[in-house]
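Quick sanity check, SgcJ/EcaC family oxidoreductase:
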Amino acid sequence: MPSTTDDETVLHDVLERWRTAVDAHRPQDVAAVFTEDAIFQGLHPYGVGRDAVAAYYASQPLGMRAAYRILETRRFADDLVLGYLDVEFTFTDRDPVAVKLAVLARRQDDGWYLAHYQVSRLAQ
């Protein structure tokens, strides 16, 4: 099933909340973009839940910013959208880090949230 505009809109909306909070170095706001039971895998050992997400982003340096591009989407159910992205994290004092990111957005009663987040850093 190819990407659709609706699926990209869902991902864009939730990822803009994520990006805005990352750019502002607001770990609790980043965590609020995730479900309570989200599986989170950044570039450190994985964690589960909003506390793990907040701790991960609290450890990131001030001035880190994220830019993303949605490459593919798939809708597995009315309330589940998978996204595969290119993401570049930039810093004030070091080279950027380019990663691939897979996310699973899940619709809950009050909107869309990230239920799964998996970063891969591919060798260049």
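Posting the structure with no commentary besides this: The first strand starts at residue 34 and ends at 41.
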